[in-house]
Amino acid sequence: MSPLPSAGPLGIPYLAEFWSRTLARRSGAAPQKASARDWVDDNTLLAGLGLNLRETYAYLYDRTPTLEAFEAWILAINGGSIDPARIARLKAALAADVSGEAALPAPEPAAPPALSDADLAFWDENGYVVLRDAVPPENAQAAAQAIYDFLAIDPLNPATWYGNAHGHTIWVPLLHHPALWANRNSPRIHRAFAQIWRRSDLWVNVDQGGFNPPERPGWSFPGPHLHWDVSLVQPIPFGVQGILYLTDTAADQGAFTCVPGFHRIIGDWLNALPVGADPRAQDLRSLRAVPIAGRAGDLIIWHHALPHGASPNRSAHPRVVQYLKLRPSQWDVQSDWR
Questions:
Q1: Residue 246 · residue 322 · CB < 8 Å
Q2: Is residue 110 part of a domain?
Q3: What burial letters (b/e) apply to 69-92, b meaning 16+ CB within 10 Å?
Q4: What is the C-alpha to C-alpha distance for residues 236 and 25, in angstroms, rounded to an integer?
Q5: Which distant-in-sequence residues (6+ apart) come within 8 Å of 175 by Cβ?
Q6: Which of 62, 77, 103 represents a domain boundary (last residue)?
């Protein structure tokens, strides 16, 4: 195997490894499945560089760029430059160097905890928690407007709600709008995730938005229904996910839905299944999921062992959301998928 190119202008040696390994996978010269360690480091790399996982793989697979072109693409997405302090912190994180903590932004002076003791007790019991007013109303409105503009939607005209150019879906592949970044950078959201993780070396991922219009003849809810985004091989490592409501969302408005408390019994539930049964093929509707209503600017954080999903919108208004989560530089994953 030929040696990897040296780190380019960004000065991140792991970036060259990621680029080389991804292109080798594309050509069939490397295993299609990343190791658990590579998967974690790859996600930390992309979060640190402000990139979405799918958009990055699509670019590499479609363009097969040189390392220099790849780095130029990364810089273009970031407006031409990335803060050197962020690069230093990312390099330390990828080297598993605990000194990377020193590069974290200083906490706000006397900033109150985002989640109260009652919130944390509710989290322990139910596996989800609602962070009220996670972002100011104007931030939620700006992000909702960015989604309307991206989809060419008039929020007051239902006739415009059903022409998603991306298909019969509630997903909105808008990634780098400044309004979305303003929410990702919310100090209150970062403090809440830090409380849940009980650590502060967190990176926000770059995820998309969502637009779930009311059902009508010719447009039924496409899902996602109840599901998991984590391997169900036991023990299931700790992990969390999040969704930010950008408009007021009633329980019947396509609200986020989950099975409260299931993180505490999932092991027993899995063990009780017949040998060889696929847990994802079970009747998850029988688990009594509940929709979680919220106001514009509320963030729902949930344990990824909870069955969860969106829900059919049977109201008169669309549900508009932004997906986001924060994870530490290193976290546990199962190498096998079930």
A1: yes
A2: no
A3: ebbebbbebbeeebeeebbebbbb
A4: 27
A5: 52, 55, 206, 207, 208
A6: 103
- Same-domain check for residues 164 and 21: no
The radius of gyration of the chain's CA atoms, rounded to the nearest angstrom, is: 21
Residue 4 lies in a domain: no
> How high is the pLDDT of residue 318?
98
The domain that holds 272 is classified in CATH as: 2.60.120.620
pTM above 0.85, yes or no: yes
Indicate whether 155 belongs to any domain.
Answer: yes
Q: What percent of the chain has pLDDT over 70?
A: 93
Q: Per DSSP, what are the bridge partners of residue 291?
A: 257
pLDDT digits (tens, 9 = 90+) for 194-238: 999 999 999 999 999 999 999 999 999 999 999 999 999 999 999
The whole domain housing 226 covers 117-328
* Paired tokens of 176: 């780098």
8-state DSSP, 299:
E
Q: How many domains does the chain have?
A: 2
Tell me the pLDDT tens digit for each residue of 100-113: 443 444 455 568 99
Q: What does the chain come to in residues?
A: 338
What stretch of H or E contains 124?
helix 117-126
Give pLDDT, residue 226: 98
Nearest 10 degrees: CA dihedral of 38, 42, 45, 50? Answer: -170
**Residue of 80, 82, 5 lying closest to 45 (CA atoms):** 82
